[in-house]
Amino acid sequence: MPHSAHEGPSVKRQKLNTVAKSKPSSSQQSRIFAPYRTIGLVSPTNVPFTSVPLGNTTFQVTTSIGRSLQTYDLKRGLNLVFMTRPQTPSDITASCAWRQKLFAAWGDSRDGSSQGVWIFQRGKKVGQLELPLDLHEPIKQIVVFGAWVLACGLTRVEVFKTETMEHYTTISIMTSQEGDNVLTGGICTMPTYLNKILVGRQNGWVEIWNISTGKLIYTILPPSPNCGAVTCMQPTRALSLVAISYAEGPLVIHNVLTDKKVLEVNAGTEDAPVTSISFRSDGIGAGQDGRKDGVMATATESSGDVTFWDLNKGGRIMGVLRSAHNPPTQEGESIRGGVSKVEFLAGQPVIVTSGRDNSLKTWIFDETPFSPIPRILHTRSGHAAPVTCLQFLPSDFDGAEAGNKWLLSGGKDRSLWGWSLRRDGQSTELSQGNIRKKAKKFGILDSSSLGRGPTTTLDDLKAPEITCIACSLNRDGGVGALPGKQVLWQKSQIQKKPVNAEVSGMTGWESVVTAHKDDSYVRTWFWGRKRAGRWAFQSGDGANVSTVAMSPCGTFAIVGSAGGSVDMFNLQSGLHRQRFPSKLTPAQARQLKLQQLRQADTVVQLQARSAIGFAPGTGKHTQAVTGIVVDSMNKNVITCSQDGKVKFWEFLTGNLLEEINWAPVTGITGSRYHATNDLIAFSCDDNSVRVVDIETKQTIREFWGCQGKINDFIFSNDGRWIVAASQDAIIRVWDLPTGHLIDAIRLERPCTALAFSATGEYLAATAEGELGVNIWNNKTLFTHVPTRQISEESIQQISGPTASGEGGHGLLEAAFEEGTSQEGDEDEVAPPSMDQLSTDMMTLSLVPRSRWQTLLHLDLIKQRNKPMEAPRLPEKAPFFLPSTTSTGASNLNITPRKSDQDPNQSRITRFDRNRAEQELTSKLQAGAANGNYDEFVDHLKSLSPATADLELRSLTSSDDSESNELFHFIRAMTNRLVARRDYELTQAWMTVFLRLHFDLILESDTLMSALAEWKRHQADECNRLDDLVSYCGGVVNFLRSPRT
Fold first, then answer.
1. Tell me, what DSSP letter sits at residue 330?
2. Does residue 349 have a cis bond before it (omega within 30 degrees)?
3. pLDDT tens-digit map of 99-149
4. CA distance 807 to 937
5. What's the CA gap between 13 and 11, in Å, rounded?
6. In angstroms, rounded to a whole number, what is the distance separating the alpha carbons of residues 679 and 716?
7. Is the full-model pTM beyond 0.85?
8. CA gap 83, 773 in Å, rounded
């Protein structure tokens, strides 16, 4: 995504100057969220990848993701090993890997911005090249060979020395008419040609320059005047032979030594010229049996195909790897495609390809019998088009997914991805079946289609663009769900394969349901098997699906259409189960009446059921359904529509129970439900968010302030906030209890989708037109955040997360910053004391969790933030400046100060006298005298972690129990434990106390007896709490379990 400014040195290097580091301005950062990182980017730019062998064991491939470079290791399965930091000030335009170094050119001075070439090693910046001041064009290619580093611009080539990295000379291409000196083909070098480079021009000429002398040696003319510009050059394995491709389609292998054409093939067309060439170097692969040398691979940015040529006997096409990458689509530039570069690895039967579809792939020739087309070996990819919807995967019945590990995303490229926030290598796209096999069946990948030009994209065989995701893992069977081969997305009305309910009941079934753009079917997915499911449910009226939801039990999918119909399907059997409102025949009406009579336990329940104000079969929405919610007990279904109505349906019968009508004041565009507090929020077309209590059916909050359409909104994990993203490029955070706007983030582009993790740790957001997903950290988990109301005028633009994670905050860093820079802040006051509701309840404190967590890990935080280098002495002043430390006046001032001090009093005695007057000690002694330690505990709460740690270290022991501070501290903690208050603080303080004074406690019988009493109360309380939690957990699991 676009970035505003350069962040400067990397985070690790700034730790050397922690003392002088100033507190960042609050106007430049969010109060609640801190940028963490961007996921889902592999190769989203047009910059080709670069590779380098790492010894004799592996290769490293480096791609550009905008302002950073990512390096993947081939031996590890294209695992990410390095990411460059710091980010470049502007987007990277060219890169080159040479030995252990990476060269990255960035910026374009034509638009007034800066530019440069940085050098990285193992992900860290180690140097840069000083570009000439008269360079006013971007660098499109970097080549390193011998003693030279070449930076190729649009019309000139800059030459540097590899030893000193100093600028050597500039090669300027002369022109006879405007535009023909543009270096469209870039530059390349020839083996054994010392100091010689080949330069491809716009007019089709290939010039040979001596970079040592800066002179033009020779010019190779095109084979015909109509060949067009040079698009690509690559030296062959044979000496003095170079392959040159032209814009009109021909590819010529030319002998540079004799200036003669050796071979010419029509490898491209006028609309799709060859832009990348590579030659296989392991000596095999050509011929009928694949045992001859002479294999060439060509690719173009206008197609996703890779063509393999046998250059023996005049050259012929061996095979075409169809749709190795997504070809460009007709839907605009938002959906990217085409192959940016192909490269055979030196001495290996492996070819690496990167596409503009945000993917990097390796292919290997190892099939038996011999096949001229390779098979896929490794792949790393992401969305090829902007992301449209997000949802964190909920915890399953056993809590195995932990609530924030997996993030589901759907994009305009017709794919559904699962992103792992713990390990990038686990991220995967959910399979939609063997697309390539289907393509062969339909003739798309048939060799007879070569004459038809670029092929149809494989995405045409995928499901349409995903617009809505619903998920519940309660019945997900993991990798063992419904073993065997299943028919994908069969229409539920016409089942091709009978369903064994016993097998699916034991193993589980689909757990993800998606709605698609301009499609009347929703589709199911197996999350555990990472593949498409069995069913495709059609909306009840045949109109396009507008929204979808799943019941919390994971058994039912509810589908809402653009025509206003709402239908429920069973995910286990694929059958239609209910319509809202229900459509009843006379026989069904009689059966329903008998069923209601059997279910009614009393006459009162029967009267309550018959007193419904809406007749069965009435109440259908008149416009598109925009939101569906099923309550946590599967009793009610809540739907909303653009007709401005919110309807409450009975889950079992499909009858309308109640209705909220906001028409014609506003229409409803979406709904979000929070099960814990039983609240449901609605976004409206008047740019407001309304919150309704499901129990009372009353509107309890209305939030205004969005200046554009609300693209997405979400509850926080605890239901305290509502986070909304609108078209005015601002993410707003409202506090539900107070109704205040407590935070706002102004981004460079509007946010289109939001998701909040179940643990509250992450906020995921997508930007308009961007391929990656931005992850934000919730700072309230590790630091105190004020919740005062802010004004719209105070909202400032903030830089979002980056792929390299620069500017992000972690637990230890934020906790340390709180202990240093935020100490003394007006918001950092002692938390209010609240009366205990009951003495039978264990009460926690209101102290932010960061306080006691930082206290527990304070030694680790100090060790981590310890300067890596010793402080340096200041430079000596010039000899002619007087020294203030040796003047007589200073000595005179010091002498009386020393004479005022009592020589008989030592420094230790003075320190003990000052300690005796400390407030903490006095409050501890007062509490020991009257048996009430509330003032002591409240004062200890108000201290910062560093101060509290110092006070605990300063406690002293003595033989007299009345003056033994360690004894009184243990008694104070025991008193707090008996009172059942501040449980988590008591545990943290005692942990630190025992860690600091365990040696003194072991030597004193008085302290051991006091500690034994505390241990007894602690064990009793732990057992009581464990019994209560186990009982409540058992009841909740019993109610949540779909098997009961």
1. T
2. no
3. 899 999 999 988 888 999 999 999 999 999 999 999 999 999 999 988 999
4. 37
5. 6
6. 12
7. no
8. 17
Q: Can you tell me the distance from the alpha carbon of 440 to that of 684, in angstroms, rounded to the nearest whole number?
A: 47
CA distances (Å), origin 397, targets 170, 418, 422, 434: 67, 19, 21, 31
Rounded CA-CA distance 537/568 in Å is: 9
Residues with pLDDT less than 70, the chain:
1-28, 329-336, 396-404, 436-437, 439-460, 492-502, 588, 592, 596, 598-613, 807-837, 873-918, 1040-1044
Residue 750, preceding peptide bond in cis (omega within 30° of 0): no
Cα(836)–Cα(815) distance, rounded to whole angstroms?
Answer: 29
* DSSP tag of 286: B
Q: In angstroms, rounded to a whole number, what is the distance separating the alpha carbons of residues 327 and 319? A: 18
Residues 327 and 454: beta-carbon distance below 8 Å: yes
Report how far apart, in Å, the C-alpha atoms of 107 and of each of 93, 131, 139, 873, 1042 are. 7, 12, 8, 39, 58
Which of 164, 54, 145, 63 is closest to 104 using CA atoms?
Answer: 63
Query: Phi/psi of residue 318, each to 5°?
Result: -80, -40
Peptide bond into 664 cis (omega under 30): yes
Residue among 830, 833, 818, 737 nearest 785 (CA): 818
Closest CA to 283 of 274, 275, 292: 292
From residue 753, alpha-carbon distances to 332, 390, 768, 946 in Å are: 21, 6, 9, 40
Sign of CA dihedral 976, 981, 983, 985: negative
Omega within 30 of 0 (cis) for the link into 369: yes
Measured CA distances, 574 to 19, 569, 571 (Å): 64, 6, 5
Q: How far apart are CA 625 and CA 669, in angstroms?
A: 9
Beta strands across the sheet bearing 710-715: 710-715, 721-726, 730-735, 741-746
Bridging pattern class, strands 512-516 and 466-471: antiparallel
Give the model's pLDDT for residue 827: 38
Burial tier of 1042 (Cβ tally within 10 Å: 0-12, 13-18, 19+): middle
Q: How far apart, in Å, are the Cα atoms of 617 and each of 166, 581, 639, 647, 834?
A: 82, 5, 16, 13, 52
Six token digits for residue 97: 């890997």
The first and second tokens of residue 399, run together, are 């809590």
Question: Which H/E stretch holds residue 862?
Answer: helix 858-864
Cβ atoms 210, 217 nearer than 8 A: yes
Give the pairing type, strands 295-299 and 306-310. antiparallel
Instruction: Give yes or no for a contact between 139 and 109, defined as CB atoms under 8 angstroms apart.
Output: no
The 10 Å CB-count burial string (b at 16+, else e) for 318-334 is: bebbbbbbbbbbeeeee
pLDDT, residue 963, reads 77
pLDDT at residue number 379: 93
> Using CA atoms, how far apart are residues 39 and 936, in angstroms rounded to an integer?
48
For residues 544 and 464, what is the distance between their CA atoms, to the nearest angstrom?
12
Q: Which residue is associated with the tokens 């890779």?
A: 306
How would you classify residue 574: left for phi > 0, otherwise alpha for psi between -120 and 50, otherwise beta?
A: left
Helix (H, G, I), strand (E, B) or coil at 646: strand
Residue appearing with tokens 């740690």: 949
| C-alpha span between 569 and 550 (Å, rounded) | 10
Q: How far apart are CA 751 and CA 748, in angstroms?
A: 9
Query: Are the CB atoms for 920 and 940 separated by under 8 Å?
Result: yes
Name the CA radius of gyration of the chain, rounded: 35
